[in-house]
Amino acid sequence: MDIPYTVKARPDTGLFNAKLGIWLFLASEVMLFGGLFSSYILLRVGADPQTWPQGLLNIPVGTFNTAVLITSSVTVVLGWSALQMNNFAAYRKYQFVTIVCAAAFLVIKCGYEYPEKFKHYEVWKTDGTRVTGHIVSADVSNRTVRVEGGVTNVVWESGHLEGSPWLWSTKTLNGENRKVLSLKLHPDSTHYAFPAKDHHAAVKEGNETTHELEFKPADIKRLSAFVPAHSTYFAIYFTLTALHGLHVLGGGLVIAYLWGPGARLWKTDPQRYTNRVEVSGLFWHFVDLVWIFLFPVFYLL
Amino acid sequence: MEATTHAAPGHAVHTAHHHEQTFWQKYIFSTDHKVIGIQYGVTALCFLFFGYCLMGLMRWSMAYPDKPVAIIGPVLELLLGKDAAPGGRVSADLYNAFGAMHGTIMVFLAIVPLAFASFGNYVVPLQIGAVDMAFPRVNMASYHCYFLGGVVMFSSFFMPGGAAKSGWTSYSPLATLAERGYLVNGQTFWILGMVLLITSSLLGAVNFCATIIQLRAPGMTWMRLPFFVWAQFVTAFILLLAFPPLEAAGVMQLMDNLFGTSFFLPSGLMMGGSTPIPVSGGGSPLLWQHLFWFLGHPEVYVLILPAMGIVAEIIANNTRKPLYGYKSLVYSLLAIGFLSFIVWAHHMYLTGMGTKISTFFQTTTMIISIPSVIILTCLFISLWGGSIRFNTPMLFALAFLPMFGIGGLTGLPLGFNFADLHLHDTYYVIAHFHYVVAPGTIFGLFAGIYYWFPKITGRYMDERLGKIHFWLSLLFMNLVFQPMFQQGMAGMIRRMYNGGATYLGTDSEIGLAPSTIWWNKPISHAAWALGLAQIPFIINFFMSIRKGKKVENDNPWASSTLEWQTPTPPPHGNFDKPMEVFRMPYSYSVPGAGSDFTPQNEPEKAR
Amino acid sequence: MSDTHSIDSIKKHRKIYVAVFVALLVGTVITVLLRMVHFSAFWITVTIALVVATIKASLVAAFFMHLSNERKAIYSTLLVTAFFLVAMMYLFIHARTDVPLDTEFPASKQVPYSRSPAAK
Questions:
Q1: Consecutive sets of 10 residues in chain A, 301 residues long: mean pLDDT of each?
Q2: What values do phi and psi take at B347, rounded to 5?
Q3: How far apart are CA B110 and CA B226, in angstroms?
Q4: A274 vs C17: CB contact, 8 Å cut-off?
Q5: ipTM score assigned to the predicted complex
Q6: What CA–CA distance (Å, rounded) separates B505 from B503?
Q7: Inter-chain contact B341–C87, Cβ cutoff 8 Å?
């Protein structure tokens, strides 16, 4: 029992089944990302004035990622078109570039961009001002349990942390096992939160000695890394880019499978194989399409 | 796929399959649309029963608030713990959990899988003359996704804090904040379950659209499709485009629950304290409502359209004449499908929207009632002059018409924003939508089960038990839901675990009239009687599989549509020979024809 | 893939693909440079950025996804989808901005709820 039109097109619609299937699926994906973009618009329009962050994302890295995806998009279609001309070797080369681009995109995003965000902080001070920057060091007090001659003592020992910690929040300042006594923040020089600009200008002029700002927990109303919980801006940024990233991963895996183990089908049923490559390519282009909107919306606007 | 020979396009070649299938391949991981249809059907019926039981417990709490549930109270306490069911009573929190899960289970785990996936999977490929769905493996994946979603939903009852209890609508901030004691709780499971169910529906929707577009047999033009197939096609499109925004919203609410985001939590929100909860704020509860109802409204058309399709098939068959106004029916379907996407905010009239936007949605809501009325009218007129056979499927199909009529008409006051001010969130709403879904859709589904049972099993279901099932169900459905209109208009709001006793009016305080609250008791008794009325059906169903009267031939109802042109039950590959279609779907009582029906695949006689 | 393409037509398509690739890169550069230019109003920047993005997306859809010579079934699906997408976005925002007088959402404008009608 053979299902018709899996390889050859149906005359009146001019489509083979999988092509129609993927376009239908892409229509639903348009609604999925569209729903998220609509949410973004609503959240941004509804935000209090002056509270929507701008310029917190790394534009050169984002631009590079955009170029990477665009490149992968053209290699995918050149690869498919090479298959149409029966040039399997050329297809393999093009598709290899596609897979490398997909991997590069994910490595840059998950290996560099996201971790960078998790080490980047914003401090809301009790006087109402806000500063963003990297934590350079912190003086802490650790809860230690000492057993001396059968007597268990709980003491708080002071300590010092160097380097950028991950994912600290207001709760970290007053933890069960560690309290932060003071922290030193290196503020961003180019950012909307104003003490930073003034501070760096003051250092330049010699009025302040060090770039670092010191905070005590009493001054801090809220501390947050650039994580989803930081603000609706980062919440929607992470949600959209992570969902997009999952699609990059999925699409990349399918393309890699067809390039590798799935390539056996080229020998037995080349038309069918070409169709599969086309269908996976269509999905890949959609992924690129979403990024074409994601990039300016989050990084530039 | 293993095929190395290519069939000429358009012709389904029946190649013999020699490989033996294991039990798992044949019944659990099957890619055959008929097996998948039955899988969906059985699972959905189980969830329908479970959802009914939840309602039964809720009705106890409403009729006899704070009293231990009769007979099963101790079991309840044993299963759900002393916090949820102290002394066998339904606590307020437990009532809310039952309420939220009753709605979720009935809509997403029972009705949609039964109406769309089960009937659709089994019947649609047969009715269009295809050998299977376009993507059989995707079909299998869609069932297992659904099954997994069902498992997740069911197990949410046993999560710390109990199942989700913020309504099937899961409005934020309540949905995020109701159970803050546990990070991963019943609400989280609800969202995960919904994501799985939505994925299942999307895969199914792609499959249905592609199948109906691509795999129609030669000669099966669009205007020769049985109305049931059109209904499934429009339903599939609705699911395809309406579900994703809810999936997006679900992901966002999950982030709110697990990662402390504030997508739907506004700034400055306080929860029983004097300082705002420690989240970033800046979110919008209305955003959740928009995203939810963007799906939620098309969803209700998903609930009704397949049932309309089934009813149409059965009416044509049992009146022995074509449906009246086939073209109007089809265009009305398309209009409903399209309009259903732009009416959603009539669920949000009380959220403080301005008059311009309110009026827009009110207008579109009024407009969408027109194609619904057209469909109902065409079905009514189809009865005129018919040679009606009053078998059990026909009884259910006939009852569908006035029941859906009541449901639909009572929706009109809700569609007007000024009337909705009084009726929103009252029992009037519950009565309205239950009339549409319960004596509406479910009757259509019962009709379908009685109608297609002979094709699936080769045996009729017993007529006498069927008629008892029908009359009792009709009676009790009306006894349950009719008084709710009055309760709603008297001001009784939804989701009160003690049936409104808290708001009982006294001489000094305005409140609900005692007579309004009194009605809870007869309604509850009728609801339990409705459950008992299903026993003849359950017995009939299982008994007839083995002991039902055998069908005389492959086409026991003498139907003209293609699903009856197969052996009984249809084998793998469905048809003995490739199907070709020559005539319209309801070729009944055609003057000059040899018999009172002509199958669609019978060629024109040579003259 | 329904009809067989001649080698010449495929080669022509490949030239188009490369041209589109260059156009996409140029479009990206333009959008990034937008940040350097300060327009009088923010919405001008937004409009230009979105218009450029839409052009890039259309190029990808039309040529890479060969939508420009695709069939009616796909066109109609996408047209319907696009309509619903726009309707969703527009109506969400319009519902948020069309509110009765004296009821506004921003937190800065919120006053704590007070049972006493005198306290306003």
A1: 87 91 95 94 84 84 94 94 92 96 96 93 86 88 86 88 89 88 82 54 64 86 92 94 96 95 92 94 95 92 81
A2: -85, -5
A3: 24
A4: no
A5: 0.91
A6: 6
A7: yes
Say if B598 falls within a structural domain: no
- Per residue in A88-116, pLDDT (tens digit) is 999 999 999 999 999 999 999 999 999 99
Q: How far is CA B47 from the centre of its chain?
A: 12
- Spatial distance between the Cα atoms of A280 and A251, rounded to a whole number of angstroms: 7
CA–CA distance, B505 with B416 (Å, rounded to integer):
28
Residues B563 and B122: their CA atoms lie apart, in Å, by 9
* CB-based contact C2 A9, cutoff 8 Å: yes
Q: Is B146 exposed, middle or buried (0-12, 13-18, 19+ CB in 10 A)?
A: buried
- Domain membership flag for residue B158: yes
CA distance C23 to chain B (A): 31
Question: Is there a contact between A87 and A284 (Cβ–Cβ < 8 Å)?
Answer: no
| Cross-strand partners of A140 | A159, A180
Q: Buried b vs exposed e over B227-261: b needs ≥16 C-beta within 10 Å?
A: bbbbbbbbbbbbbbbbbbbbbbbbbbbbbbbeebb
By C-alpha distance, which of A160, A130, A167, A127 is closest to A142?
Answer: A160
Residues of C with CB under 8 A from a CB of B: 73, 80-81, 84, 87-88, 91-92, 94-96, 98-100, 103, 105, 107, 110
Output phi, psi for A161, to 5 deg.
-115, 135
C8 lies in the same domain as C35: yes
State the total domains in chain B.
Answer: 1
Task: Kindly list the distances between the CA atom of residue B164 and the CA atoms of A52, B110, B158, B314, B493, in Å, as whole numbers in the listed order.
Answer: 33, 18, 11, 39, 20
Contact flag B354-C96 (C-beta cutoff 8 Å): no
Judged by CB atoms closer than 8 Å, whether chains meet at B262 and A29 is answered as no
Contact B13 A1 (CB under 8 A): yes
pTM: 0.91
Whole-number Å distance between alpha carbons of B96 and B498: 11
Euclidean distance between CA atoms B606 and B76, whole angstroms: 70
List chains adjacent to chain C, taking adjacency as at least 3 C-beta pairs closer than 8 Å. A, B
Site from C42, C60, C92 to mutate, A interface, most A CB atoms within 10 angstroms: C60
Does residue B594 sit within a domain?
no
Q: Which residues form the domain of B347?
A: 38-265+281-565
Instruction: State the Cα–Cα distance between residues B262 and B255, nearest whole angstrom.
Output: 8
CATH assignment of the domain containing B182: 1.20.210.10
Give me B290's structure tokens.
């928009």
pLDDT tens per residue across span B361-372:
999 999 999 999
The residue ranges of every structural domain in chain A are 54-119+231-300, 123-226
**Domain A54-119+231-300 class?**
mainly alpha
Q: Which of B241, B282, B357 sits opposite C95 (nearest CB)?
A: B357
Tell me which chain B residues have a C-beta less than 8 angstroms from the C-beta of C110: 267-268
